[in-house]
Amino acid sequence: MLCSTLLDDFGLEPLDAGARHDLLEILEERYGRRSTIVTSQLPVTSWHEVIGDPTYADAILDRLVHNAHRIELVGESLRRARGKHAKTA
């Protein structure tokens, strides 16, 4: 059975050396064989800074972005909009 992996809210904190290495290993293992879904509040252009090491960032982004289907959402957060609606109701 093939399973997807979800990385939710990627980039909330910078990655340390161990996390960078582990993420690269996971993506390397999955590349071309299994899907990986990533959600983030940050644009991809900011991910180099979050990953922290330029060599690791290039390798990680190459594996994530190369065959990716990107969906970029614009507009207000759904949670924020619902919160405003609840306050006025």
Major beta-sheet overview = 2 strands, parallel
Please give the count of helices.
4
State the CATH superfamily name: P-loop containing nucleotide triphosphate hydrolases
SS class? mainly alpha
The dominant shape is: elongated
What is the tally of beta strands?
A: 2
- Can you list the strand order of the major beta sheet? 1-2
Q: Give unreliable regions as ranges.
A: none
pLDDT averaged residue by residue: 87
Helix content: 40-55%
CATH architecture: 3-Layer(aba) Sandwich
Q: Keywords for this structure?
A:
89 residues, Rossmann fold, 4 helices, mainly alpha, two-stranded parallel sheet
Mind explaining what this structure looks like?
The chain is mainly alpha-helical and 89 residues long. It has one domain: Rossmann fold. It contains 4 helices and 2 strands, in the order βαβααα. Strands 1-2 form a two-stranded parallel sheet. The longest helix is centred in the N-terminal third of the chain and has 14 residues. The radius of gyration is 16 Å and the shape is elongated. The mean pLDDT is 87.
Task: Record the SSE blueprint.
Elements (H helix, E strand, L loop, with lengths): L4 E3 L9 H14 L5 E3 L8 H5 L2 H12 L12 H11 L1
Parallel strand pairs: 1-2
